[in-house]
User: Which sequence fits this backbone?
């Protein structure tokens, strides 16, 4: 009773805020306010195989299934939410969005028979500077729903690359080309791998990572990103 009263007082003084727009959420443990839950810019990717994310890789690499959870527009609440995840230490946002992705995958007719989840790795210098890999936390959220093992020891980012935020498609491709290194080719032979990343823009980073993973025999690739950049 005493603990319950204290908890209510804490919630009154420090109300839980929506991680998308900072409005107060109606219920304890709820991550989004009612308005954001209603108006969140979900994609149709989990119901449509030939979606906008898949089209980015046509003629580039073989992908079994690919989906992004949310559309990402400039100067939108989603953009600032992803900025907080990536640069402001909000690892909890990655977990929440990973859970959302996992639930969508569970209901989707796609993403069958996935064996491993591999989050896009960060270069060790960038990892030390940031303190965490945002894609790893998204992967943990997906794992919590689907119980698919995460492997972060298979591939590494061996070349430090510049930030790609303002780069065009060709600049991004050149920036990340051959920047990944496969550590353990034998352990992924014949496996269906789910690559997890935060934002899909041109797909250059995912393509570079996937190409390296595909060096192992009989590997299949699927991809999940939290967001897809839209103009």
Assistant:
């Amino acid at each position: 009773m005493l603990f319950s009263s204290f908890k209510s007082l804490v919630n009154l003084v420090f109300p839980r805020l929506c991680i998308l727009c900072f409005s107060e959420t109606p219920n304890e443990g709820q991550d989004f306010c009612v308005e954001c839950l209603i108006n969140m810019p979900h994609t149709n990717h989990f119901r449509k195989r030939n979606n906008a994310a898949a089209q980015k890789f046509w003629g580039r690499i073989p992908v079994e299934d690919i989906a992004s959870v949310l559309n990402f527009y400039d100067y939108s609440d989603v953009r600032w939410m992803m900025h907080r995840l990536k640069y402001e230490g909000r690892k909890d946002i990655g977990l929440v969005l990973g859970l959302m992705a996992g639930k969508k995958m569970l209901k989707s007719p796609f993403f069958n028979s996935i064996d491993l989840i591999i989050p896009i790795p960060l270069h060790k210098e960038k990892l030390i500077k940031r303190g965490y890999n945002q894609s790893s936390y998204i992967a943990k959220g997906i794992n919590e729903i689907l119980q698919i093992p995460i492997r972060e020891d298979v591939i590494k980012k061996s070349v430090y690359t510049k930030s790609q935020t303002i780069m065009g498609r060709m600049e991004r491709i050149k920036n990340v080309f051959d920047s990944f290194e496969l550590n353990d080719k034998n352990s992924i032979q014949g496996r269906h791998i789910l690559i997890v990343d935060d934002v899909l823009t041109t797909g250059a980073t995912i393509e570079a990572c996937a190409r390296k993973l595909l060096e192992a025999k009989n590997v299949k690739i699927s991809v999940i990103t939290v967001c897809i950049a839209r103009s």
The first helix runs from residue 2 to 13. Residues 1-40 form one domain. The radius of gyration is 18 Å.
